[in-house]
Design goal:
By secondary structure, the protein is an alpha/beta fold. It has eleven helices and twelve strands. β1 and β2 form a beta hairpin. It is globular, with a radius of gyration of 19 Å.
Length: 329
């Protein structure tokens, strides 16, 4: 496994995002999830990404169980915090107050069964709390040894600058894929100016770019994609047509659609680490195959023709969730 650098942190070229293992995409098999984490580590993946609100703590407990028989220091654990949940599983806003930051981390350390988190980041920017206060609280946790590095998630250019003025930021976690290229205009240049890496989630657009999606697919209970505009009605048909155009390019290179999409993200710079949201070992194996795909200039041009920038139909979240994105302001 080759390595890439996120700020002051060196990690594997690809990371594993564990969100889908805790109900966000509907039910998941816990034993298979743990086996997938183990398979990723065996393949050399050294970055595990989670959120304390994934499954209301279930995801952190799952990672703890997976690491019981492994060396915890083999991986860097990245944790997002701040999202508030209700007993029905709904979202109730975000809390970035310093006292809340320290409270969230206390529970995270207990659930993960570890004495430190490698990257700690607010899942969303709390508009009611200055980012300087939130980052300042994490900086105190770094000083105390509970956190190694500070990251951001879905932050816009001004917020990134303000946060970096308080404490070094290793990476910005943000959606980036062939169908989500908004960061290229302002956000990515600011990150590069400040030496901040990018952990790209949604590189397969929640499965849409996996090459396995059908317009007739029925989403299970609790799968938030049922509310996502890109997965509904005419938007879905339009987007699946883009996938089929990408499939032609991929098949010409004898790779899968997913591998072409991941290889494209990998080609965008060595300061970008794609997070693969595989829930099963077969999907993980397919995704890791992208590491062997070297896209030529002709390949990249063909991909751009198949899936032009801004060709996607529909926002990446519903209106309520889009309103929480500092990166979209």
């Amino acid at each position: 496994m080759r390595e890439r650098t996120l700020g002051q942190l060196t990690t594997s070229e690809i990371g594993l995002g564990a969100m889908g293992m805790s109900g966000m995409y509907g039910p998941a098999d816990e034993a298979e999830s743990i086996a997938t984490i183990h398979a990723a580590m065996d393949a050399g993946v050294t970055l595990l990404d989670t959120g304390d609100f994934y499954g209301m703590g279930h995801n952190e407990l799952l990672i703890r169980d997976a690491l019981r028989t492994r060396d915890r220091d083999q991986v860097a654990i990245s944790v997002k915090f701040g999202a508030l949940r209700d007993p029905a599983g709904g979202f109730a806003g975000y809390d970035g107050r310093p006292v809340a930051v320290k409270n969230f981390l206390t529970y995270t350390l207990t659930r993960l069964g570890t004495d430190h988190v490698d990257i700690y980041r607010p899942a969303r920017v709390d508009p009611a709390v200055p980012i300087e206060d939130t980052i300042g609280a994490i900086a105190e946790l770094v000083e105390a040894g509970y956190v190694r590095h500070i990251g951001l998630s879905e932050a816009g250019p001004e917020t990134i600058r303000r946060a970096a003025a308080v404490h070094p930021i290793v990476d910005l976690q943000i959606e980036y894929s062939l169908l989500s290229r908004g960061i290229e205009k302002e956000i990515l240049p600011v990150c590069r100016e400040l030496g901040i890496g990018v952990t790209a989630y949604g590189v397969l657009t929640r499965g849409l770019l996996s090459g396995h999606w059908s317009k007739d697919r029925q989403l299970g209970k609790g799968d938030f994609r049922g509310r996502a505009p890109r997965f509904s009605g005419g938007n879905l048909e339009h987007n699946l047509a883009l996938v089929e155009a990408l499939r032609e390019v991929a098949e010409a290179r004898d790779v899968t659609v997913a591998q072409a999409a991941i290889a494209w993200v990998l080609s965008r710079g060595t300061d970008i680490v794609p997070l693969i949201g595989a829930r099963r070992r077969d999907r993980l194996s397919e995704a890791l195959g992208a590491l062997e795909v070297e896209l030529t200039g002709d390949d990249l041009a063909a991909i751009e023709r198949a899936v032009p920038a801004e060709s996607v139909a529909g926002d990446r979240y519903d209106a309520a969730q889009m309103a929480h994105l500092d990166s979209e302001r």
